[in-house]
Amino acid sequence: MMDLKNEQLAREVHPQLQTIKIIKRDGRLMDFDDQKIYDALVKAKQQIHGELSPIDHERLLEIVERIDAEIGQRFSTDVKIYEIQNIVEHILLEKGEYEIAEAYINYRTRRDFDRSKATDINFTIGRLINKDQSVVNENANKDSNVFNTQRDLTAGIVGKSIGLKMLPTHVANAHQKGDIHYHDLDYHPYTPMTNCCLIDFKGMLNDGFKIGNAEVESPKSIQTATAQISQIIANVASSQYGGCSADRTDELLAPFAKLNYQKHMQDALKWIENPKRREEYAKAKTKKDIFDAMQSLEYEINTLFTSNGQTPFTSLGFGLGTNWFEREIQRAILQIRINGLGSERRTAIFPKLIFSIKKGVNSNPTDPNYDIKQLALECATKRMYPDILNYDKIVELTGSFKVPMGCRSFLQGWQDESGQEVNVGRMNLGVVTLNLPRIALEAAGDQDKFWTLLEERLATVKDALVYRVERCKEAIPANAPILYMYGAFGKRLSRTDAVNELFKNKRATVSLGYIGLYEVASTFFGGAWENNPTAKDFTLSIVKSLKAHADDWGNEYGYHFSVYSTPSESLTDRFCRLDTEKFGIVENVTDKEYYTNSFHYDVRKNPTPFEKLDFEKDYPKYCSGGFIHYCEYPMLQQNPKALEAVWDYSYDKVGYLGTNTPIDHCYECGFEGDFTPTERGFECPQCGNHDPKTCDVVKRTCGYLGNPQARPMVHGRHKEISSRVKHMK
């Protein structure tokens, strides 16, 4: 496409055009840029006639010069965007370009309709009633057939519509256009909810808490402790919209298992004379109690439904405890997951299991818990979980060791006023994600323009994130007593305290997300850029810039603005779809029908796990507010040593690593492996079975597992899910 030299035209025709500002619909002032007019006219003519000739381009340049002249004659100061559009339409008609005028007018009208429909509750409710798939299937783990999910979707439509009107106008406009994504609009800002958290289970279990009308005392057994944990999870998940995690679950529950042991030892003292047999008896009974308690927790989490119509997005971290009780808890967690749910031994979707690996504890054959690592490997080959955390690398990247809050959102090391390190009880206030590929496409090969546009978009993201914080501060403790008053967020507030006491001084995080580094580099360096040092340095400079901005914002406002490699179950699709409408099919960018999440290697190239880790390891130190790595494998059940080789290789390279391996199972013919996506759903390649009742299909979508076969409404999208599932990380 021929470039239009804006400044040169402005000087030749009307010098004042250099100083004119455009007043956008959302009130922002932007520099006048007739390149945008030219691009819009090119797009309109291409829709009618396809590729343009040099003569076509010259004709459009003449029209733009005439538009510039008209603007220069009529305006000497700021001009509203609709006045510019009226001039464009008038000049097109004056020049006899009726087809282009019609296409241009139709495009502007459609954009106005789209803006209005986004805040029209009746229109969007109609889409829900008519089962529009983009509405009913936005979340892979919410069954839109059940009443409470339908109610939540209805409430979400209301929340989104009102939320868009509550947002600063330029933020709402940027979200609707696809420049940014304001996450979880169905909940926030309509309500001042928080996102995800590390629940302070230790404080709640030891000090007691309240749910509803019940005052709950500290448990006297591990069975009661896990029952209380499940109730806490259900209530926390209904009081926020993101995931929640239990950190160091084995160490958390070991003292309660010890109470079981002491009780059994008291019984043994009454009935058994041999001291050795007494201990054997007490340990055997306690081991059974531990297994039953952890199995009960697994089932309770998978059978819970929160107020928003889904199982709580829950993660359990474990692996560092070395005493007998802690080891037995670790072993039980893994063995229960291996065994599966119910008589058919289906793969549990929740909780997500995160196994911590640490040298001297469980990493090497000489470590005391190496046998637990072997069980974790077996579990990962059969159930995809656990993901792993490499202890030393997590400390290096985030400043302290802790599991992520839910999927991949990491807190940074933080100390309270007394100098005590605090992780549990802290939270995230939400995410706003930046559409990086769009900036690259708009820059059209000009890196200087890319950086200029990035600065403009980051200003909008900053405003969006600050708004998230300010809205969260408007909550009162009584809005979510389990969080603010009864211990889930650590420090317990009174009804009259300000919730900001738990957010300020960087105790809480708020996150700048990003997507599509692969696509950005592809626009400047071509699709096979991963081994080009210049290209990789360019992508690293982008995340460095994001971190520098986030750090500056944090110092300015007193909250931790973190850079977050976005959890984008649907966003990889949304941004790409919007950019395809705007820019058409662009090789290695929009032609794939998805964007690659964050810093991930282009999976189409099928890199080895070692190549993928070597490529990705350089990014997380600039986005330590949220990250995860995945490696793709064939079936591993007969070769866990292959997975261990990758785990060991990753130890000093990456902090957080997940496993993607085929684990689908057909109960008709016994096939285990990867089911085939079809229009009828995922299908057993051996016998053709696609009945959700007799097959177990589990795919990783975003940071969690999902069961697309159990969602009848999404059968038409199974091919899309299968083709994108690798890239939605």
Q: Can you describe this structure?
A:
Its EC number is 1.17.4.2. The modification Glycine radical is found at residue 703. Residues 20-115 form the ATP-cone domain. Residues 605-729 form the Glycine radical domain. It is elongated, with a radius of gyration of 28 Å. The protein contains 25 helices and 23 strands. Helix 6 runs antiparallel to helix 8, helix 15 (370-383) crosses helix 24 (640-650) and helix 20 packs across helix 21 (533-557). The protein is 47% helix and 12% strand. It has 729 residues and is of the alpha/beta class.
Largest sheet: 7 strands, mixed
| Broad shape | elongated
Strands of the largest sheet, in order across it?
A: 5-8-9-10-11-16-15
Low-confidence stretches: 1-13, 711-729
Terminal CA distance: 35 Å
Can you count the helices?
A: 25
Number of strands: 23
Protein name: Anaerobic ribonucleoside-triphosphate reductase
Organism: Candidatus Enterococcus myersii
GO molecular function, one term: ribonucleoside-triphosphate reductase (thioredoxin) activity
Enzyme class: oxidoreductase
